[in-house]
Amino acid sequence: MRRLACIYIMVSVGLLVCIASPLRAQIKISGTVYDASRALPLPSVSVVSTGGNGTTTDSTGRYTIVVKESDSISFSFLNRPTAKFPVKGIQNVFQFDISLHVPVNELPTVRVQPRNYRIDSIQNRKDYAKVFDFRKPGIGVSTSPTGGVGLDLAEFINIFRFRHNRRMLAFQKRLLQEEEDKFIDQRFTRATVRKITGLTGDSLIRFMTLYRPSYEFTQVSNDYEFLEYIKLASIEFRAYGMRRREETGF
Fold first, then answer.
1. Domain of 25, in residue numbers
2. Domains in the chain: how many in total?
3. 54 close to 47: Cβ distance less than 8 angstroms
């Protein structure tokens, strides 16, 4: 029995080691990217690992990326990639700050946007609160002051306001669609697409029509994933254009 118990313990420990090994292999690295003076944090810096994971710095220059111990990470800003930093050589993975040799005069000009999607959306929800909160009427019950329960007469009458209900539901659907479209528009902009793809004129318009992302993808993707989608879509778009010219002759 004692021998069986020892074998059981050894097998259990072995399984725990096998399970824990992949977990230990995943490392989360965080930090801030600064300019050459280490005074200004840099937003929109690409952070990529040799294992394939990637992200971008936020408006405060902060980033977080999950990598393997065998990976290396590199940073890229204004198409200038840095050397690769082996993960094993990073002493403090919780605060791996880096300074890029980018002079202040080379930083992109910050433009003050006249409108803000989030503020507009909140205001729109306030202005049309009755429409956004509208629900198709159903048979409900009401409770009297004496504790009795009966049919909710007002709710029952609303069931037969067919035209009003259809108009409200149609208006609500249109407002929700407009809200989703504006959410996509504030990320999938001409300036962003032009910068990533290099497309202009009719080609740019055609690309943005054909490869407009879905609301769901726009909502869940981070900046790196979103820009990578535009980049890969532009490769497919150009390949399709070349095939079409070969087939038609122009």
1. 13-106
2. 2
3. yes
Whether 241 and 250 have beta carbons less than 8 Å apart is answered as: no
Q: Which amino acid is at 101?
A: H
pLDDT tens-digit map of 61-120: 899 999 999 999 999 887 777 889 999 999 999 999 998 886 555 555 444 444 555 566
pTM for the full predicted model:
0.42
Q: Which of 219, 202, 222, 220 is nearest to 210 (CA)?
A: 202
CA dist., res. 172 & res. 76, Å (int) = 44
Helix axes 162-185, 117-127, angle to 10 degrees: 170
Identify whether 140 is part of a domain.
no
Report yes or no on 92 lying in a domain.
yes
- What the block records as the tokens of 127 is 């202005």
- Residue 191, SS3? helix
**Farthest CA pair distance, the chain:** 84
Contact between 54 and 228 (Cβ < 8 Å): yes
Q: The tokens of 132 are what?
A: 């956004």
CA angle, 38 then 39 then 42, to 5°: 80
Q: Taking the C-alpha atoms of 40, 45, 50 and 51 in order, what is their torsion angle to the nearest 10 degrees?
A: 110
